[in-house]
Structure to design on (998 residues):
């Protein structure tokens, strides 16, 4: 768009990225802050994105041998206390249930009554309660592996919240598995981080780096944490999914023991892994533009919207009929093993307003049909990933014959665009000066650098440049020198400012 | 089975129905009590039943124009207080969050810290919080109707809990709709109770009565409550779903107001409706027998299990190959718009033990294949709805050609069996003596009687015979006399002992 063109979203990404993010959410009607501190209301358009993510992820979890189950919302305080690092990580921000009823306060109102013997924590994550349950399920090597996932809500009493990215309550899935050997548990951990990476790239069209977290960024109680890290359009990193190898830490604190094939009593090896509604925030910040939300066809609640353009009432019935027929024919086509999701918007509303409504909601393809198109058997096709004035005049049959290809092409184009943005904003760093100038002030992006630092160094960089080590890349590189310590290493880190 | 035959479940239904119920759940590995008081762990086999219910119900909700959304887990105390009857109904049993962190108790443990300004209630139901949110969404008649459903967990601090039927935390869906007229809201309320009735009968194979609740049994704050009532195999009623016409009660307490087409400011009319994991309990108690769980094919996690019978190792590969081929061919067939769900159980385990494993899990069809079947191109088919010794020797092609019909036939047979049980246990009651002898001692079943009683009478019957008015049937009957009061009425009630 021209530099001075008015955009549907104000401010623009460049002017104020955080504010732009809030406005995109509002304009697309995805979610809003609720009257309960830190909790959001996920509105239908936003919730459908999560449902679509759930459906695809759930199929992948099942394909890789997992089943779903459900464990309690509440965790007794004593369970949380069992794993020392874990409690340290979660005690500071958790919702504590202390009473089991409301009683009269004597002034016409109510107050908490019936104090519980032991306070209950609303789960911030379920390792401790699930570990306790698993300790009863596991007796022998024959009971292993346990491969279970749970779709659930969790609560972390965050002080600064931001819709989808960081909310007091959020929706997620948490996989919890138990294995007989370290090797098998590590393979599970790596398998699941790869499932997440595939999902991010192939479904969300969001390129990610897979890597290992440094000690300071590990899940509290984990031996290793792997994450996928995506780059948002402000150059900041978003941790979009994690998979933890928990070693025997939780097995020991929960007593998950089994008799091995050789008759030896051993502690089991566990993993956990999760993604959350934060992915919706990542989706928004990866693809959306200054006209609002942009959705990849694989996740869009509606992939195509048909807008009848009715200049005068004489044309109404013929245009509507044409559009309805078009909708039916489109719905006979399949994309990703499901019929196309098509919306016909015949509301009584100005055409421009209506078109912008769907632009802001991110629908991948918009078809406009006026009386002349009806007469000529044509449609006008707009792709949401292109500029708002970029349109194609197509024969109706041609459009129908290529629509699935068009959706694939949009899906791919979004991935390519995000990938090339990431490439542009990524710098191989070979000395401290380069690092400092890259992150100076508002500078952001991914710095890739040989890394052999420790937690102290990470703290320093966090203070001086607001950057953290997002992850250590999985590859072993040719030996080089750590940019900060000069030590020799084969490991490269991604450093970035992060959400 | 013969009177003295040993059953897989002990005790039998007749000997001790509540204990039988617990044992069926245990033997099928559906769920277990958790270490958290009143909360259950739903295990994969049980959770899959709920997932299957969700999938079918969700499609129905969408077909009838609803969308899903998500609202906060927590409700500020002041919101709960707004609707007088509502708070009375829920204040006595709710989980109250009073603190937002755990801090050191000075003795090496932790205690609640950071007291909240206002206590939060873990939602027992969401009318008040959703009403508050809706009050911001609704300004004009153009914003109506709002047709939203939420899948969520809720908490009611029940003192006596029972797996699936009554637990402190349970999973459910709650629909919350807003309308411009009473008429439209009433139609919505009735539409949804019919959706539940269709689901109960056509998917769960569980016959239900649709009716209206009396004042004493209404949802706290509702104008009318409609329910579906099913009969369990002990003759007791299970309320399996409810739909509430809330009038303007919650609109007034939450301030849901709109400007009508005529420019008048009016309060809106709301409804809510829900079913929960209690349905799983209903499913169990409707169909299961003294050998364990019996599942209708439309909901079974696996519809068919194939058991290779391998008397000696020489046969292993040919039998397994035959079974694997059978599985692939079965999976090419579709039932209810999805490929058949087939399990091949090739575990190393005694044949009898393995067969009983699947009997207890309620799989509708069991196929056994031994070397002689392989040689002859046959299979042995057992239907779970028939006696354990009732088997069919079938040509493989014949079995494949009729398997979908067989599943339909099982689905129908379960409904017929439950219906005829209900008919047998239902009595038209025409005087008080009949009523008293019907419910004397352990007597149970449905008493259908002309009813013109009030809450006082209901309380008396509840004390004297442990019976309640389950619902007033929807039909208007020929005028008759209330069995208890002698008043003339066209209404008949179902009276029963209930869960």
């Amino acid at each position: 768009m021209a530099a001075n063109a008015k955009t549907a979203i104000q401010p623009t990404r460049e002017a104020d990225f955080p504010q732009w993010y809030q406005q995109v959410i509002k304009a697309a009607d995805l979610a809003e802050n609720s009257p309960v501190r830190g909790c959001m209301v996920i509105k239908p358009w936003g919730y459908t994105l999560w449902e679509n993510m759930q459906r695809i992820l759930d199929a992948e979890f099942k394909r890789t041998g997992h089943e779903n189950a459900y464990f309690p919302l509440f965790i007794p305080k004593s369970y949380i206390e069992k794993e020392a690092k874990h409690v340290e990580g979660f005690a500071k921000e958790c919702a504590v249930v202390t009473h089991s009823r409301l009683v009269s306060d004597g002034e016409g109102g109510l107050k908490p009554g019936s104090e519980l013997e032991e306070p209950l924590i609303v789960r911030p994550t379920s390792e401790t309660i699930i570990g306790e349950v698993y300790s009863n399920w596991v007796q022998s090597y024959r009971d292993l592996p346990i491969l279970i996932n749970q779709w659930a809500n969790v609560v972390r009493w965050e002080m600064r919240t931001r819709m989808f990215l960081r909310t007091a309550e959020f929706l997620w899935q948490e996989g919890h598995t138990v294995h007989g050997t370290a090797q098998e548990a590590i393979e599970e951990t790596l398998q699941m981080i790869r499932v997440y990476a595939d999902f991010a790239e192939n479904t969300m069209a969001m390129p990610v780096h897979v890597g290992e977290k440094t000690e300071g960024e590990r899940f509290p109680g984990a031996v290793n944490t792997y994450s996928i890290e995506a780059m948002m359009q402000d150059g900041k990193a978003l941790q979009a999914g994690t998979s933890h190898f928990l070693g025997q830490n939780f097995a020991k604190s929960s007593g998950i023991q089994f008799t091995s094939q050789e008759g030896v009593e051993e502690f089991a090896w566990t993993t956990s892994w999760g993604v959350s509604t934060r992915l919706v925030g990542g989706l928004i910040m990866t693809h959306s533009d200054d006209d609002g939300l942009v959705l990849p066809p694989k996740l869009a609640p509606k992939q195509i919207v048909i807008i009848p353009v009715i200049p005068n009432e004489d044309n109404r019935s013929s245009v509507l009929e044409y559009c309805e027929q078009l909708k039916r024919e489109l719905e006979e086509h399949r994309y990703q093993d499901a019929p196309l999701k098509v919306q016909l918007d015949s509301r009584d509303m100005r055409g421009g307003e209506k078109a912008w409504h769907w632009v802001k909601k991110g629908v991948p393809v918009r078809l406009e049909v006026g009386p002349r198109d009806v007469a000529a058997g044509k449609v006008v096709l707009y792709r949401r990933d292109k500029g708002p004035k970029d349109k194609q005049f197509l024969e109706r049959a041609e459009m129908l014959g290529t629509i699935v290809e068009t959706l694939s092409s949009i899906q791919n184009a979004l991935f390519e665009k995000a990938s090339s943005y990431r490439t542009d904003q990524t710098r191989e760093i070979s000395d401290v000066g380069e690092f400092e100038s890259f992150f100076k002030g508002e500078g952001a992006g991914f710095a890739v650098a040989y890394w052999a630092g420790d937690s102290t160094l990470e703290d320093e960089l966090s203070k001086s440049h607001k950057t953290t080590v997002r992850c250590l890349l999985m590859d072993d590189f040719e030996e080089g020198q750590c940019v900060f310590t000069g030590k020799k290493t084969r490991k490269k880190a991604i450093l970035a400012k992060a959400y």
Remarks:
- Chain A touches chain B through 60 residues (CB under 8 Å).
